[in-house]
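User: I'm designing a mutation panel for Crossover junction endodeoxyribonuclease RuvC and want to avoid disrupting the core. Could you give me a predicted structure to guide residue selection? Please restate the sequence first so the numbering is unambiguous.

Assistant: Good idea. Sequence first, for numbering, then the predicted structure tokens:
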Amino acid sequence: MRVLGVDPGLTRCGLGVVEGGGGREVRAVAVDVVRTPPDDEVAARLGAIADAVERWIAEHRPDVVAVERVFSQHNVRSVIGTAQAGGVVALVAGRAGLPVAFHTPSEVKAAVTGSGRADKAQVTTMVTRVLALDAPPRPADAADALALAVCHCWRAPMAARMAQAEARAAEVARVHAAKVAAATRRRAR
């Protein structure tokens, strides 16, 4: 599975592509950060992010796009910009026919470091180790994008198995309810 991880942001938007094999085997394919000038209009900045994501999708051909889910922060302007960038990424991926998965920061941290409360330095250290990189990805947005992609590679198979199990359980419950209803109708006659 090839995953494009995106750490959305208006000023710095991290992009990282990771390829996952069986189990926990992952390798880095590419990483970069899209920067937009804070003085530019928001529409132009979002357009630059959209253009970059389109290029990455065309060049790296991911199977899925993993985006960091926006969480509440004290800086409302930052949250709004992050949400706008994440929405643009989801739109571009959807138009390319790719599924989009959202992961919370704590999910990503827990998957990569073992702790949902890890700091950025710990995430960068573990991403560097897990992907056997020669140097830590800089800035932190690049490491976060790779961490998102790794998280998705590791969590997606379990999520798929859970969804299959839930679907089977729902079908068993539906069949059981139909049998109970039929038995009730027979007794009422």
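For picking mutation sites, this is relevant: Helices lie at 42-60, 76-95, 105-113, 120-130, 140-188. The chain has a mean pLDDT of 93.
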